[in-house]
Amino acid sequence: xxTEALLEQHRSALTGHCYRMLGSVVDAEDAVxxxxxxxxxxxxxxxxxxxxxxxxxxxxxxxxLDTLSATARRRVRPVELSATPAVVDDDLVLEQRPREYWVxxxxxxxxxxxxxxxxxxxxxxxxxxxxxxxxxxxxxxxxQRAVLLxxxxxxxxxxxxxxxxxxxxxxxxxxxxxxxxxxxxxNPATLPRELSEDQKQLVARYVEAxxxxxxxxxxxxxxxxxxxxxxxxxxxxxxxxSIARWLLGPGIGCNGSRLVPVEACGGTPAFAHYRxxxxxxxxxxxxxxxxxxxxxxxxxxxxETLFPRFGLPLQxxxxxxxxxx
Length: 325
Prior knowledge:
This protein has a six-stranded mixed beta sheet with strand order 2-1-6-5-4-3. Helix content is 48%, strand content 14%. The protein is globular, with a radius of gyration of 21 Å. Helix 2 (11-22) packs parallel to helix 4 (52-69), helix 3 (25-42) crosses helix 4 and helix 9 (158-165) crosses helix 10 (169-186). It contains 15 helices and six strands. It is an alpha+beta fold. Strand 3 (258-264) and strand 4 (268-275) form a beta hairpin.
């Protein structure tokens, strides 16, 4: 097998790792490409000193650390920019921020290792690309982030991490302890690995209500403090009344939409949202659930960046929509 083919076998796993580190599908792609280039240039010095997989993760981690050292901004979600939700009224102003501000979703196919991976490892990898977890990771300093991911997701020993990051074992253990403390204040309760049948029905009822544009039925599926946000706009809304006013006011253009399911962020309920009778790509919609209610709706409007990475067209025919359901 050629060097390129050997390296390529690890692309998906490395992309998932870089995504956790950087919070961006675009930045993860760039980091993996740089990692592959560095590995290809130095493959003759590898000499089997560790497994190829471990060696590649070490390179990718350091590429991500280089990337993070060059940017001072932490990627966030709109609900983390302001302590208070917006009010839907005549004075509402929509302000955009560049895509570099936002934690982005990623296709499962890009970020998860091959299906024949050990089931427990596969489950951990899926859970660790959940949007809420990746957003929480961005609050960790880069080296703490790397230490936590290498030990808790990839199951490296403290000694292996110390060697890979040129740290002492004591420094690794200290960084891990601090990372866990910070993450505990940021990460929501652990979500189930798979949606229950009731939750699957909840998502199905949401899709039906949205496509019928039955706002009353839709809001009944929401948690009392559910949020709605739309990156790159920095506003966010909270509660049934505010969300309903948005959907029946500024968001009324969503009437007549179609939602096409996609696989994103470790099985998080996600949909390609098409407006104008289901023809025009509008957003990548991510849902978060807690028990029997939907707690968050995030619509990523940067379809030119995201849809191609999900293999989604920017125009959708009714026939294609029917086939995808």
